[in-house]
């Protein structure tokens, strides 16, 4: 009963907001697009509504924190709101994948794992949100660029301007993504790991919780690093081919 009371104030409203954004994209903004493009773009629009606002909310929560640098203090009200906001988004996007793209196993597993971390921290443990909120900033700071590029990518074969935008955003997006996911993210995770291993959360966060959080987050960072390395390889190869064509 207590969990239901806690869930009601903001989580359902956030969830309804994200679903409304999805429908707005699906039935209004992208209604004339091909079916798959329409669904992808609607998901990206929903992600746009989550990413940058989540970053701003998370930064605000961190700036108002009286315990910066600790990963085991009780969750603040602002931190809980951030977790609820992101939980609502991942629930909505998980629904999108399960309904329209059930074969996208990697995305579905990613969303389920992310939800596990957010839900256990927010509704079961009630401690340790600061580290997760910090990692959320790093994870979502690239969201705007990534989603605009993805939406443009859906139309690059038909709209020259979309193709140019998709190409223009590639290098800046890859560079920022590499910085936050490949460098800052692992540094933050390492500091969290040292904190937990040294007993910083003893008696506050159960070992099963912080260990599972570290495994989930570490796996996500590793997958992100592999993904961005593949994107860089594709980008360099594409640029090399274009350069060869110009020379030829």
TrEMBL record:
Nucleotide-binding is among the record's keywords: no
Keywords from the named record: Membrane, Transmembrane, Transmembrane helix
Gene Ontology CC, one term: membrane
InterPro entries registered for this protein in UniProt: At5g14285-like (IPR040327), TLC-dom (IPR006634)
Major localization listed first in the record, in broad terms: membrane
Domain of life assignment: Eukaryota
Keyword Manganese among record annotations: no
TM annotation in the entry: 14-33, 45-63, 105-125, 174-196, 208-229
Domain TLC per the UniProt entry, residue ranges: 36-226
Stored SMART domains: TLC (SM00724)
Compartments, record wording: Membrane
Membrane topology: Multi-pass membrane protein
Protein name, entry field: TLC domain-containing protein
């Amino acid at each position: 009963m207590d969990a239901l009371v806690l869930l009601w104030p903001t989580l359902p409203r956030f969830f309804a907001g994200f679903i409304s954004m999805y429908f707005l994209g699906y039935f209004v903004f992208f209604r004339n697009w091909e079916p798959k493009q329409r669904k992808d773009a609607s998901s990206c629009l929903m992600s746009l509504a989550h990413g940058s606002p989540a970053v701003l909310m998370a930064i605000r929560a961190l700036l108002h924190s009286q315990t910066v640098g600790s990963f085991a203090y009780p969750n603040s009200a602002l931190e809980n709101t951030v977790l609820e906001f992101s939980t609502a988004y991942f629930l909505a996007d998980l629904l999108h994948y399960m309904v329209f793209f059930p074969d996208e196993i990697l995305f579905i597993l990613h969303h389920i794992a992310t939800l596990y971390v957010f839900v256990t921290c927010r509704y079961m443990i009630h401690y340790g949100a600061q580290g997760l909120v910090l990692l959320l900033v790093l994870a979502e700071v690239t969201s705007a660029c990534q989603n605009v590029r993805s939406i443009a990518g859906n139309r690059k074969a038909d709209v020259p301007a979309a193709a140019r935008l998709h190409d223009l955003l590639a290098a800046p997006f890859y560079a920022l993504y590499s910085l936050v996911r490949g460098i800052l993210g692992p540094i933050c995770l390492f500091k969290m790991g040292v904190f937990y291993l040294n007993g910083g959360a003893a008696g506050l966060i159960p070992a099963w919780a912080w260990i599972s959080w570290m495994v989930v987050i570490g796996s996500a960072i590793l997958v992100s690093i592999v993904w961005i390395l593949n994107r860089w390889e594709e980008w360099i190869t594409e640029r090399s081919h274009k350069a060869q064509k110009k020379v030829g």
